[in-house]
Amino acid sequence: MATLEIRDLHVSVETPDAGPKQILRGVDLTVRAGETHAIMGPNGSGKSTLAYSIAGHPRYTVTGGTVTLDGEDVLAMSVDERARAGLFLAMQYPVEVPGVTVSNFLRTAKTAVSGEAPSLRHWTKDVKAAMDALRMDPAFAERNVNEGFSGGEKKRHEILQMELLKPKVAVLDETDSGLDVDALRIVSEGVNRVRETGETGLLLITHYTRILRYVKPDFVHVFVAGRVAEEGGPELADDLEENGYDRFLDSSAPVT
Ligand code: ADP
Ligand code: MG
Ligand code: MG
C-alpha cells in the first residue's frame, strides 16, 4: 500500500527583493493509497507551496524535514523521478507546452512513468474511454497542451492525465477554482473514479468547500501560516463552509 509521508517539512521561497522567505513551518502529513485528504486554508497560508515542494519546483527550498514515498526519499529525486515513483501533481497554474498535442503528451508521460510505451491498441481505447467519461470532444486530443485552453479544459486535462497515469499519490491544487457547476461535477466524478480504485492517495488542496460536496474527504487538514493548525473528518469542512477561517486567523495573530 503506497504511503506518502511528510515530516516536519520546512520550506522557504526566494523572493526578488527580500531574499528567502520561510513559508512552511513544520508540516506533518501522511497520505495512503485509497485515502482522500483535503487541505484547506486561507489564501497565503502555504498550500500551493506544499504542492510545489512535493513536485520539486526549483524556486522552493526545503530547509528542514523529510518527504518519503514508500520509504524512498522524494526530496532527493528529480522532477521526472518523482513522476516515475508514482507522484502526480496538478498545478494551480498549468504551463503551455507549445507544439505538443494532448495525445502525444499523454503517451509520452505514460511511457516515461511506466518505463515502456503502452500498446497502441489498448492505449487508444483507454484514452477514448477516459475522454468520453470526462465529456471531452475527441478533437481535444489533437490540440496543443494548454494552448488556449479554457479554465475548465485545463482542469479536465489534469484529471484526464491522472486517470490515465494511475499515480500512487495525486496532489490537486485548486482543481475546483474557476469551474462552473457542470464542469465541477464532471471533474469531481473523475476524481471519484480514481478514488474508487483504492489505488491512489488523493491530496485535494482547496480554499473553498465546493469540490468537497462532490468528493467526500476522509481527512481534513486546516493550513494556517505554513503548518497544519487543525485536523478532523469531513465535518471540519462543513464547519469551515459555515464559519469560514476567522477563528484560525484570530488565534494565529501575533500576541502583543
Ligand atoms: P496558498 O496556496 O495557501 O494561497 P501560497 O503557498 O501560494 O499560499 O503562498 C504562501 C505565501 O508564500 C504567501 O505569502 C505568498 O505571497 C508567498 N509566496 C509563495 N510563492 C512565492 C514566490 N514565488 N515569491 C514570493 N512569495 C511567494
Ligand atoms: Mg493562493
Ligand atoms: Mg494556492
UniProtKB/TrEMBL annotation:
Keywords: ATP-binding, Nucleotide-binding
KW Lyase (keyword) present: no
Record bears the keyword ATP-binding: yes
SUPFAM superfamilies: P-loop containing nucleoside triphosphate hydrolases
ABC transporter domain mapped to chain residues: 4-250
Entry's family note: Belongs to the ABC transporter superfamily. Ycf16 family.
Protein name: Fe-S cluster assembly ATP-binding protein
